[in-house]
C-alpha cells in the first residue's frame, strides 16, 4: 500500500489539461491548450515522475518491455531509452505508473481496505486520458492523420515509432478494461486511440512497414476481441466507423477495417451494436435506415453470415416490440430484414421457416389437453410482432404473401377473440394482418383465397389452420387476460365469412370489400350446380325419427346448404354497408356482368328449378333491376349484356312471379335511353301508394294499403315486379299499434299470396317462430298466416308443411299466451286440412297430451282440446280417418267424464264427442239407405299412401 500511496501523491502533484468539475462531475475531460503550455506541463510532470521513479530511462524501458512480455523488441530497449523527446519520456513514465496502479489497486473490490478515493480515481482517469494523447495518438499509422476531416492530429515533425506503439498498447491493455474507470464517456477517446494503435500495427505489418511474429499478430487480434467482449459493442462499431470513414487509408487498411467490421457484424449482438453506434454518429445526409440496410444487405456476404444477420434482426425487432423505448429503431430493422429477404431464395426460405416455427404451436400444439398452450402475454407479443413485420410500412415490411398460407389461421383467431372487449389492440392487429394479406393479392389469387374461405376447402395449397381443439376463453386467474387451451371437448365448427365481413365493414378498404363482394356473388352459380348434384333429402320423412338419423339429416343439410347460407348472409351484410352502396353505384358495369353470368348459369340448370334456386333467382332479378335504375349507363350496355340471358331464362321457367320480374326487366331494356324514366304511369301509381304507406298517419297508411291491394289484384306489372318492396312495407306496417292499420295489412298479405305464395308463407313462417320479435308482433303474424290459409281454402294443402310446422312449433313455446294462440290457429287450420294431417297426427296428439298433462296455463289447455274438436268437425268421411278416430275418441271421452277437469275443457270434449256421434250416425244411415256407387278419385303423387286408406278428392300435390 505504501508503494501505491506514493503514486497517489504523484498524481496530486502532476498537472493535466483543464478539468471542469462543475460541469462534468467526477468525469475528467481534456481541453485544448497551447503548445507552449503543453510543453511546460510535460516538463513539470516529468520532473515529478523522476522524484518518485528513480530508475534511469534505459532501465525503465527494459523493465516495461519485460513486464509487457515484448521480448522481440527487448534488444531495442537501450535505443528506445536514449530519447530526449519530452512526449516520449512522459509516455514511458506514464505507462509505467498507470500499469503499476492498475496491477496493485483493486478498483472492483468493495472492501474497505481496497476503496479508492473519488478524487484519486478522477485524477487517475485524467492521467490516462493525458498519457493516451501523448503516447498512442502520436504514433499511429501516418494515414490516420490524413484526409478531411482528420480524426487524429499530431505535430508535423512527429514520426511514428511502431516499437514505441507496441509498448504503449501493452501498457494500456492493463488499464482500459477496468470497468469502474468507465464513468460516462471518460475513456471513449483512449479506447479509440487504443484500437487505432492496434490497427496501425496490423496495417504496417500488412504493408510490410513493420515486422511482427505470428504470435504478436494473434495477441493484437486478441486485444481487439477483448475490447469487443468487455466494452460496449456500440462503442466498438462507432470507433470502427470513424476510422473507416477516412478515405485516405491504404487498400490494406480499408481491407483490415472492412474485415473487422464484417466479423463483428456477423457475431452475436453485432446488428444491435451497429444500430446504436450509427445512431450516435449518423450522417444527416442519409437516413439511419439507408445507412444500415446498405451495410447489412450485401450479396457478397456468405449464406451463413446472412442467416446470422436475419436471426439477429428478428431478435432485435422482437426487443423493439417488447421495449417501447426501442420502437424508434424498428424501421432500421425492418428495412434491413426486407433487403436481406429480397437478396436470394435461401433467405426467403429461411424467413418462411422462421414464421412457421413461430405459429407452429397454434397449428400442432404439443401440450396436453385442458392445459394452456402458451402464455397470453407471449401470444399478444407474437401478434404485435407480426403486425410490425407486415403492416407498419409498404416499403420496409416483409411481403404480405408470406401470410397467405396463414390467412385461415389468423381469421380463426380473430373469430375467437372478437367477442371479448378487453383485447381491442389485439383485434386491431389481427384486422390489419388480414386486410394487408388480402389487399396485396392480384385478382386471381384473391378469388382463390375467398373461394377457399367461403367453401372452407381443406385442399388449398399450403393452407395452415388453427388446431380444431384450441379454444380461447377468459382466464380465471386474471380477468384482464384470456387464455389459450387445448380443449378435450373435441373440434369446434366455425365459419370464416362472418369474421371477414366484420373486418371489411370496419375498414377503409372499400375497393377490396367491393371485389370480395363480387367474388362471393360469383360463387352462387357454382353452388347452385353443386346443389343440383347433391343427394336430396326425402320430403316424406316423418318428423319423429331416431336420434342417430336426425344427426345424419343435420349433417346432410349442413353440407348441402351451409356454404350457400353463409355466402348469402355475408352478401346481405356487405350490401347494407353504406360505402359498399357507393362502390356499387360507381361500378355498376362490373356488378351487372356478374349478374349476367348468374343468369346464364340459371339457364344452364335443369328446367325445373328447386325452390331455393327460385328464391335466389328472384333476388338476382331484383338486384338487376335496382342496378339498372340507379345506373347512369346507357341502355345499349345493359341490353348487350342482359338481353340474351333474360330471354333464355324466360323460356325455361314456369313460375309466374319470376316471369313478372323478367318481363319487367325486358321492358326496361326496350325502353328509352334514360333508364331512370320507365313506364311512368305504372311507376307513379306504385310510388304514390308507397308514399302513403310510409307516412306516419294511420289513415294515410290505410289508404296506401288499399291502393296497393288494388294494384296487386289487377296484376299491375310494376307493382308485381316490386313485390319484395311491398312485402317489406307490409311487414313494417304490420307492427303498427293501430288495429285498423294492421288489419288492413292482413288483407294486403292475403292479396299478395296469390302472386307470391311460397315467398310470403316462408317469410311469415320465419317471422312467426323468431324468438327475437315481440310477442304482439308474432301474434299478429300468426293471424296473417291463418287468414292466408282461409283465403287459399282447401288449396293450401300445397303448403301444409309450412303451415302445420309453423303452428306446431309455436305450441312448444315457453310463452303461455303464444301457445294459446298457436293451438287456436292450429285448430282452425286442422278444420281446413283435416285430410292432410295423417303424417302429423302422432306429433299432434303428443303436443295436445303434453299440454293437457304438463301445461300450467288453462286457456292453452282449452285451446289444445279444441284442436281435436275442430279436427273432428272437419272430417267428411269417417272411413278415411279410421286409424285416427280411436285415439281421439279415448282422449275426448276421458276429458269429458273426468270430474276434476275444467268445465270449458269438458264442454270442448263433449262437443267433439257429439260431433263424432252425429257423423257416425249419418255414416250408418248412408250405408244402409244409399245404393252402392262407383267412385273415381285422384290420388296424391308424392304423399306416401297407406294400404286400405282412402284419400280426399282435393289431394292433388
From TrEMBL:
One of its GO terms (biological process) is protein secretion. Belongs to the Tango6 family. PANTHER family: TRANSPORT AND GOLGI ORGANIZATION PROTEIN 6 FAMILY MEMBER, TRANSPORT AND GOLGI ORGANIZATION PROTEIN 6 HOMOLOG. InterPro entries: ARM-type_fold (IPR016024), Rtp1_C1 (IPR019451), TANGO6/Rtp1 (IPR039600). It comes from the Eukaryota. This is RNA polymerase II assembly factor Rtp1 C-terminal domain-containing protein. It holds the Pfam family RTP1_C1.
